[in-house]
Amino acid sequence: MKYMFLATDENKMQLYHLLLNAINFHENGHEVTTVLECASPKLLIGIADGSIKLPVFDKAMEFGIIDHACKACTATFKATEAAEKLGVPLKGELKGHSNLLKFAEAGFSIITF
Mean pLDDT in each 10-residue stretch from start to end of the chain (113 residues)? Predict the structure, then answer.
């Protein structure tokens, strides 16, 4: 099955659990991707500077299951430099924001925390 995990809040424990589950789905043979939207890209600043420790983030990046962070939201929270440092792509196909319709049309079930 195909799952898109959508992070929306600036809550490191929410992101931890979302990525933990995304990794679990991936390791169990599902097609998985993750999108950082709304306030969640702000967490990239702490991950990049080391003030937020989330080893699951590194593992998700290693597995290639983080599709992108919202370009507009990342810019709003001044996290663009952090995203670039971490190698998180930025996309903004829907007036600067993430286009979730393309995931739904590609058969992904959207899971959010």
Answer: 98 98 98 98 98 97 98 98 98 96 98 91
